[in-house]
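Hello Y.,

Per our agreement to keep a running log of every chain we model this quarter, I'm adding this entry. I've kept the format consistent with earlier entries: sequence first, then predicted structure.
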Amino acid sequence: MDLLGIIMKRKDFIKTTLLTSGVAFLPVNVSASDSNISKKIKAIKPKSLFDGANIGLIAPASYIDEIELSDSKNNLAALGFSSISTERILKRFGYLAGDDKNRADDLNEMFIRKDVDAIVCVRGGYGCMRMLDMIDYKSVKKNPKILIGYSDITALLFALYSQTGLIGFHGPVGTSTFNNYSIDNFINVLMYGKNNYSPMLAEDDIYNEDSAFERYTINSGKAKGVLIGGNLSIVVSLLGTKYDVDYSGKIIFLEEIDEEPYRIDRMLSQLIMAGKFKKAAGIVLGIFRKCERKKFNPSFETTFRLKEVLEDRLKRLGIPVFYGFSFGHVTNKITLPFGINAEMDADNFSLTYLESAVQR
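Predicted structure for the entry above:
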């Protein structure tokens, strides 16, 4: 047999072997995460809060102590709610509130329990990402409830929305300062379920750190879209995972704390290079506390300021962007629903919820 005949015979053998073994040729540009991210998500609205509702308290990230647990219960009692927690909540495993299974079991139990009407995270910190694979998403979908928190809780908001469609809430944790501003937003969104609701911007805050509370427009314009987002570091850490979501047509809200401008630059650049903002509708930036350049930095006089980084990275996107909305690691907190339709106005620093985020 000549050389050509040998080659053709070998090709036929390989083709037959692959077909009989069930192996298929797939395009190299398709991945499980790409398929998951691009799927259309059907939103599920949890039931609204009511006077006397029973709140399940969890610590899904960093550990808490008895004082923090007591403060959380007192805060909720002042709002007219009862609260319960399991013995797991005070466990400690290094910097975590117990091991990953402990924290996931606590979350899963709160969704299943019939005597729990909503779930409030006592604090953020770090650790939610570690337990995302242990969440019982089928039970969550069968028992949709309000879950609220911010900072590291961003990972839970993304995971619950991407895997079940459940609308979560970026807002106060149990140990937050529940002042009149934060309470008004909390009640209007979670109890009254207002639609066409525009949270009023806080006039000031107890913090006055450099220009962190300055408001400014980076790109003018209005935009409508589904509202998603959270803490910038956590948002970036979800890239490439099945818990990420498609940013197309979305209004993305972002906040951060204690990251120098070059780190903010790096995270925004990663999102840009990943193509996350290509089809986004707009961006609402919260308060980036303690993210200004440090004065002890030898290059303090020549390094970029936070505002310069945000403008340099985001202006080129050509979509509406503004900075200074009242959410993040600040006292005056807006409760932001994750997964509802909203409209932003970058020139008037406004965000309007076009539908209720809860079932009444």
